[in-house]
Amino acid sequence: MNSIYDAIIVGGGVIGGSIAFQLAKRGKKVLLLEKDRLASKASSAAAGMLGAQSELDVDQPLFRLATESREMFPELAEELKDTSGIDIELVNKGMFKVALTNDGAAKLKNIIKTQQAAGLEAQWLSTAEARKAEPLLSDELKGAMYIPKDGQVSATRLSLAFTKSAAALGVDIKEFVHVSDLCTKDGAVKGVVTNIGEFSCENVIVASGAWSAFLLEKLGVTLDTYPVKGECFSVLTNSPLLERTIFSDGCYLVPKVGGRIIVGATVKANTFDQKVSLEGISTLMERATQLLPAIKETELEKTWAGIRPQTGDGLPYFGEHPACNGLFIATGHYRNGILLSPITGVLMADMVEKKKKPQWSAFRLDRAIQPLFS
Amino acid sequence: MNSIYDAIIVGGGVIGGSIAFQLAKRGKKVLLLEKDRLASKASSAAAGMLGAQSELDVDQPLFRLATESREMFPELAEELKDTSGIDIELVNKGMFKVALTNDGAAKLKNIIKTQQAAGLEAQWLSTAEARKAEPLLSDELKGAMYIPKDGQVSATRLSLAFTKSAAALGVDIKEFVHVSDLCTKDGAVKGVVTNIGEFSCENVIVASGAWSAFLLEKLGVTLDTYPVKGECFSVLTNSPLLERTIFSDGCYLVPKVGGRIIVGATVKANTFDQKVSLEGISTLMERATQLLPAIKETELEKTWAGIRPQTGDGLPYFGEHPACNGLFIATGHYRNGILLSPITGVLMADMVEKKKKPQWSAFRLDRAIQPLFS
Amino acid sequence: MNSIYDAIIVGGGVIGGSIAFQLAKRGKKVLLLEKDRLASKASSAAAGMLGAQSELDVDQPLFRLATESREMFPELAEELKDTSGIDIELVNKGMFKVALTNDGAAKLKNIIKTQQAAGLEAQWLSTAEARKAEPLLSDELKGAMYIPKDGQVSATRLSLAFTKSAAALGVDIKEFVHVSDLCTKDGAVKGVVTNIGEFSCENVIVASGAWSAFLLEKLGVTLDTYPVKGECFSVLTNSPLLERTIFSDGCYLVPKVGGRIIVGATVKANTFDQKVSLEGISTLMERATQLLPAIKETELEKTWAGIRPQTGDGLPYFGEHPACNGLFIATGHYRNGILLSPITGVLMADMVEKKKKPQWSAFRLDRAIQPLFS
Amino acid sequence: MNSIYDAIIVGGGVIGGSIAFQLAKRGKKVLLLEKDRLASKASSAAAGMLGAQSELDVDQPLFRLATESREMFPELAEELKDTSGIDIELVNKGMFKVALTNDGAAKLKNIIKTQQAAGLEAQWLSTAEARKAEPLLSDELKGAMYIPKDGQVSATRLSLAFTKSAAALGVDIKEFVHVSDLCTKDGAVKGVVTNIGEFSCENVIVASGAWSAFLLEKLGVTLDTYPVKGECFSVLTNSPLLERTIFSDGCYLVPKVGGRIIVGATVKANTFDQKVSLEGISTLMERATQLLPAIKETELEKTWAGIRPQTGDGLPYFGEHPACNGLFIATGHYRNGILLSPITGVLMADMVEKKKKPQWSAFRLDRAIQPLFS
């Protein structure tokens, strides 16, 4: 007979792993189900940028979520290292969001002004100043916004650290399990149906990234989400070319430990096809060379693609289903899954524990499934 | 707007590929949809034995199907080579089904008698005779049944040859497409719903191996099928150790081109977990060494697992759904998918063309879904 | 005690394999030594073009060698398939050497005239005519030279087929063996010294490609050779984009079975570094897209590099060392190792058997090591 | 023109990397040359045990070297993390050296006594006590020696951390460079000859592991060394099976981060063949299962082999060549390369700086090459 779990999490990526970790820390009995291998999809495909200020506008609700999540990383890194032995390779050397045109420079200067007004650190650097810090940057750039706090981590190691820490705290993990349905009774979750049998639980959290829609659709929940493919490549050097992440429209370069640089990412909507196209990689190579000419000499290590969950209004969904007690959803993180994973874990654990967090109402489910209330 | 296909095949493995190839040869407009990559699951995991006489009993309906399918290979090999350029590496050097005990030897002798009575070639060899043909076989064996006609092919190349030949004949192929539902009207198929949109068609053939159940269940069709994992490994030698396939209870050795030997396969029911276990490989290694001591010195190349579709009565399902015109199913090939793929392609193409084949009624769907008729 | 070999071949690539195969056919007792794995370097990195007429000028001595070698492929393909079971995937659909400029077109027309005068098949096609045969070629090309006889093979399978056929004929093969010296007596070879001991023999053939120089230098033989790196990539499609090989200055596209296309190759002299550079791949991608715009949509499969042995005058070296009886050298095949492998095998076997072939004197060693005679 | 290096290190494994790091810290201008890729051979193949007390006898000179080196790891781990960003995954949870027989137990108890007498921490545990700490250990063991200080690291990450830290401190690194000779003048090193030209230097340190002999032999230095192959495999689990390293005769299990366990290692002398044999892996699997029955259920991740440099008397060689000033040698670390890498780096840097360390005279070169003095 199966025991009754406090929560079953569907999805073993960085979001499911973070939720499992937080619930386990609160003493919950948790089962994590993954249809493939842990962290085998978008979570491992990410470059690991923590681009709160570089990717988002200051007046977006997502901005506040992102900066709060970013602040959690230093402490989280230590906690995960202690629990799992895994170093997430957090690098806090900041980011350069560079301008390729004078227009771009003007725009960045405005963003800096807005962010400074909101109390955030950001600073304009001339091309010469930027090249003093990063001498191999192209001298044809038109300056850069320096964001000291937008760091980066190893996405693969973070995802692994979450799930392995969760396992160390007692979470049961099963891979290659396909969840096909919920068991419900009187409008409340009672368990899940899978290809290896049923499991009983009080709560189910769907955190399957771009694949969430398949299960949710089966459950009669239609969120406004769609998959977006991103292609990347990495290069290797013996001596590092960069210390800081370089971010521009259409291309970023994230310097990893050991002289590795990850270059990303293309944007192709509405496909689950994980193939890497010649055109995608070729375009990224051109853009990367424009930013950092010396990258031409580096060794091409590998190429890959990931499928990220985007939503109609660009905001993730966090919430409990209005018509089904105990069914929670956390998806739609798009390009910010790594950055948002720490706060998503805490936020969803709070929801399961019925702790209200009114400040995050922008991400509620009923903006998508309001008809259910009528 | 999408064009209307004569047939949409769901599943890009060896069975789906064979059906696509046969339908294309008959001038049908065909779309092949695969949820992952072509031939990425059981079709590539198979060892490629064509074990009609070694795996099956002469009075089983499957036996006749298997021997007929086996006879199709020589001509098929040429046809696929002409169409796709791919050599399926058909080897027709026969098989030794060996006895490890005197009881086993007696049993094999009986099988030989029965098969000879049925007009099939099979012959008893003493251990000395067997070792004359295969000098590295263990001298502790208790003789062998020699089956001249049970050959073997490269499973991966056969699967690829089917799909690439189909493509060369005009079949459209789409990978990473998830079919979530059928479109029907007045009890007849009109198309399929997928994550990249709807496609119109006259007929749908579900040929997704062990994954067929997920889609069929959604369509309200419950066949008595279940997945069975098989683990394998391969070794490499510079000089070949074997010419013929060696088959025993619990272990077979299939000599491939280039001095490669595939050793298979464990049997683990009711799991989609594609992980290779230490115990599975360790047990196979012991058994292989018992049959062919010299295999100890070979280089271990790789290990893998595949998930095969088994059925309650051990027979595959071929047929049109009784309550849904145009919905065809071909699944449940278990360990014989490679062997049965040629005849399955022809048989299903016949069905789509409404050609009756009464001799194959043992495989009809209604043995499983009879309630639908009441 | 080691037995005495008729010949020891140093190098397990396509050249060493071909020589081993020919010597074994002539009843010689042969040992093949490879410092790494068989065919692990340039032999597997090649695209497999048989570009006798596309790569060479009609009045070069190499041209005659290349065309003779090319003619050997159809019969060789059958022989290797019979002996080893391996299909070398010989494709005889010809090649288009395309012009990117009007100047280039004029040049090609001249080459055609010269080749026709020499009795070879070659034909000018307008862009429209070329696109009738290969509809996806760019319409910005300026016509093409059609060479019906310049086919292609799978380089990896050819290399493997040679060594495995040699093994089937009794050749001993040892991998990961480092030959450090020769044993000689009275100016004649008596054996080789390796890290696993000494082996006695009558003849030694050095066929280690770009690595030949290391051993030869140690033996006091300085040939005018140097390594040239070539980078390649491959793409995958479900429906083939090309039937024929497309060749232009700086880029070729070779359509392989299964919808694969190999794109090559850069040229970087004087390095053994097998790393693939971002710049190399990026440049090839641009050029390939210029020839075949539809390649942009294909899936990038992989990238790799090989190190080819070039010589000062661009001609290979075939011969017996003038001051050391029984020491033979076959190296310097540069980009034509696959194409020249059949004739090299025969030619070197002839030399070992003391059969004179005066027509190939252009490739004699003493053009490089003449001082040895003085 | 090449600049003059203070030191050129031949070999980019864990030993060469450690020496490069130490010399760079002392302000030396260093060039590191590697014939293949950095840390691509034995350094990455190691399990990373720091088995000073488990592998060695207390009265051996190597024992003192090993314990001193082991003590350096905690500080080194921080230093390498600071310099390169790479966490070497040092785990300090101790080791269980287990007894499989009563005789083995008696022997271990004696060792404990000797080590305690020498002031080292070591403790006898009954099987019940050992299983209290490691509940999945077999109950058929006969007790264990607990060594609190024998920890472990990630061998691959340590090797990478050394070379990348060296690079960060200004060391030049070149891969795929073959050193074929020394330049000397008046009995002193002046540079090295490589396939990409000559490089000038004051000192050369040969640290090429099992491959050192090839270069040294060429230089007329014959050390009494030979290669020893070791085969390993790794398994994966979601929940860790072990916390501490388990060591027995013929098999060890090293629990890595993320639920990975490395199992090693076979011992095959006098081969550079890096192939993994069926027999080697099969034997290790049996032994591992005997120690930790639950390992049967784990997923087999991969198998590999490494070639370690052993010496005639089992001791490494550290020293300057008596007849060639500036030619240093550091090789022969056998199974202790990872453990001994920190102290080897310091020791060789001291030698290059002409600092005498009389306590390490047991490792001097002249025990092997004494004839050179006569």
TrEMBL record, chains A, B, C, D:
Gene3D superfamilies: D-Amino Acid Oxidase, subunit A, domain 2, FAD/NAD(P)-binding domain
FAD dependent oxidoreductase domain residues: 6-351
One GO MF term: flavin adenine dinucleotide binding
Pfam families for the chain: DAO
Gene Ontology CC terms, in alphabetical order: cytoplasm
Keywords: Oxidoreductase, Thiamine biosynthesis
EC number: 1.4.3.19
GO annotation, biological process: thiamine biosynthetic process; thiamine diphosphate biosynthetic process
Pathway: Cofactor biosynthesis; thiamine diphosphate biosynthesis
Catalytic reaction(s) noted: glycine + O2 + H2O = glyoxylate + H2O2 + NH4(+)
NCBIfam families reported in the protein's UniProt record: thiamin_ThiO
Identification of the protein by name: glycine oxidase
